[in-house]
Amino acid sequence: MQIHVAGPFEPPDNPLPTADPAIAPMRRPCMERGCQYRNRALVYGGWLLAVLDLLANVAIVHDWVQVSRAQAAAIVERDALRAELAVRQVPRPPVVAVPAPPPAEPVRARPRPGPKSVSDVPPPVPESEKWWNR
Description:
Number of helices: 2
Mean pLDDT: 77
Distance between the termini: 138 Å
Low-confidence stretches: none
Shape: flat
Radius of gyration: 49 Å
Structural class: mainly alpha
Order of helices and strands: HH
Oligomer: single chain
């Protein structure tokens, strides 16, 4: 009887069968590095997009804060100007009510003519004007 001594165990390239042949089998780097392995360019590109989005959102919020501060300052200035104008304003003379003129007499509408009677039968043609009597 012979005893067969095997070398170190190496898993095959694709140990699991794929359920769908349209899906590519798992690659060796993915098996070695785990299921979270991705292309580094894609990972860094995603992080770059996330950082740019964060910076854009911070810039937008910063603009909103500046706009709201500017609006608040404009409201304060408007109220101050209104108060200053209220002090300077000269009292107006009282308004005299003028009576309204009496309403004009309504114009009577003309009566509408009735609908014309339309006959489906054409008017009679005299016998002397018919083509076979000419």
